[in-house]
Design a protein that fits this description.
219 residues; 0% strand; elongated
């Protein structure tokens, strides 16, 4: 089959979406990541709540976001406005999982077609699709990292205005929605760093593997 530029663009896009959504899913689904931040961020001392209280509150919120369990925050107070924001977050979580599933299906389909020699990928400007997926997201992440380093609060605010347009319920009052006290900005910064490392690490390893495989075939 003649190598296709269109399939190469599709492959690059699917790789970028897959690794990004998979990386985002890790801190969502891997609760030990949050548990490890409780002592690291000094949350018991900062909030006055013991570790078990903090874990229970976090677990109840995540059960709601991921599994659709009834909303709750353990022993911590919450408001209807706060619950409404978490309902919006649940929709975004489901979107991430859906995009992860779709991109995985696309990659599987392309792999099968390639294996059956019914699909071939044309290099884009002399580079393989995996390289462009990695390079594209690297450029985006570098810009976001520079912004976060200069003004994390500003980036955090713009992020919420983009993904929650026209809403202000993401601005929590810690007196009525105590959950925000166990989810400080430092935690989100660390979660973002984890997503960045997993996403870019996976993409660049894939690009390297594709490059070496291509060289072996030429040899």
């Amino acid at each position: 089959m003649k190598p296709s530029r269109t399939l190469s663009v599709l492959l690059a896009a699917a790789l970028a979406v897959f690794f990004l959504t998979a990386a985002i899913a890790v801190p969502i689904l891997c609760r030990p990541f949050y548990y490890g931040q409780i002592d690291a961020l000094g949350l018991p001392a900062a909030t006055g709540w013991d570790e078990q209280t903090i874990r229970t509150a976090y677990d109840e919120v995540m059960d709601y976001l991921v599994f659709g369990a009834p909303f709750g925050t353990g022993a911590l107070r919450w408001s209807a406005s706060g619950q409404a924001h978490f309902a919006d977050c649940r929709a975004l979580f489901r979107l991430d999982f859906a995009l992860l599933a779709v991109s995985a299906a696309v990659l599987l389909a392309l792999a099968v077609l390639y294996r059956l020699r019914r699909a071939a990928f044309r290099p884009l400007a002399g580079r393989r699709p995996a390289f462009w997926a990695a390079a594209g997201l690297t450029a985006v992440f570098l810009l976001l990292a520079a912004w976060a380093a200069a003004d994390f609060t500003g980036l955090f605010t713009v992020f919420h205005r983009v993904f929650f347009p026209g809403k202000t319920n993401w601005v929590f009052d810690p007196r009525t929605d105590e959950i925000i006290r166990i989810l400080p900005e430092a935690f989100w910064a660390r979660a973002g760093a984890l997503v960045l490392a997993l996403c870019l690490g996976g993409l660049w390893l894939t690009a390297l593997a594709a490059h070496r495989l291509g060289r072996r075939k030429k040899a």
